[in-house]
Amino acid sequence: MGESVRYLYFIFEWLYVLFLCVYYIRDEKTYQLFAKGLMMLYIGILCIGVWECLTGNHLSQSGSLFYETTTSAFQPTGFQFNTNDFASLLTILFPIVVMQLTTWKHKSLMLIGMIGIGGTSLYLVIMTNSRLAMIVLLLEILVLLFGWSKVWSFVSIYVLSIGALLVSTFHSSRFIKQLLDMVKNSFTEKGHSTSERMQMYQASWDIIKESHFMGIGAGNLPLRLDEYMYGFERLSDNYWAPHNYWLEAFANGGILAFLPLLAFFIGYFIFAIRYWVKAHYDITSAIPLLIGIAFVAASVGLSSTIDKRHLCLGIGTGLAVLNICYFQKGGLKNDS
């Protein structure tokens, strides 16, 4: 009962945040005000992440203070509990923040801000060892550069060339070598973690089939998964995170709950892609699509998704942008 109430509460919270975003962010002026505040918060989060990486200290609720690994001391968590949560926060808000930077009138400051925020975000995501977050952030940077290159193609190529030159020049430095080693290790030394997740996915699918696709009740999959993975029922209710939002939703609510959820996200991506194409791949029009991609990555990268408020805030912002685009006067404008 406790897990069911918890799960239903977070469903209500998600719906409420989505409603608030669409209801209040209904025009370009309101969106710009919201994005400015979000950008200031994002910069503050980046500062906390860098402080954690440099000092090994963390905020009081950081998971790095509860579990100890060989790397956790200098891995950033920010306001989140663990590193994967922090990485998902950076990737889902990154497009909103970068787009807001393009509204700056001084081009030199805008370029410095983009390089600073982009470089710091990439550094912190690498430090989290989150493979999906690294891929998503690089994809976001490439898509945004593609939309930005119509005006800044020469500058983009120039910056990328200088960056490649610096990496090749300082490849032997300890800092660059450490980052490159972390990227390599993230993709080559997590075989046990990957196989464990595949085992959990198979177990979740078996539970779905055993329920005849009708669901086992809201919030019950982590409890059933714990019994499945251990092979017996324990005295107290123990929580085993499924690490897959889609399988968790399917197992908890069954096909009657999963189909509307699937239809919502399919519709979201259809309208996001249409907006992007309609705006001729403009940097601003890519925001809803990139937010959606970041959410999908987080939905299979995080241990649990339903209790991550920054994810529903991101989706809510994406919905608000689509609402402005399709129901207001022409959508957001890019002043860069």
Automatic annotation (TrEMBL):
Pfam families: Wzy_C. Residues 121-260 form the O-antigen ligase-related domain. GO terms for cellular component: membrane. The chain crosses the membrane at residues 6-26, 33-51, 86-102, 109-126, 132-148, 155-176, 249-271, 283-302, 308-327. Keywords: Membrane, Transmembrane, Transmembrane helix. It is found in: Membrane. This is O-Antigen polymerase family protein. It comes from Listeria riparia FSL S10-1204.
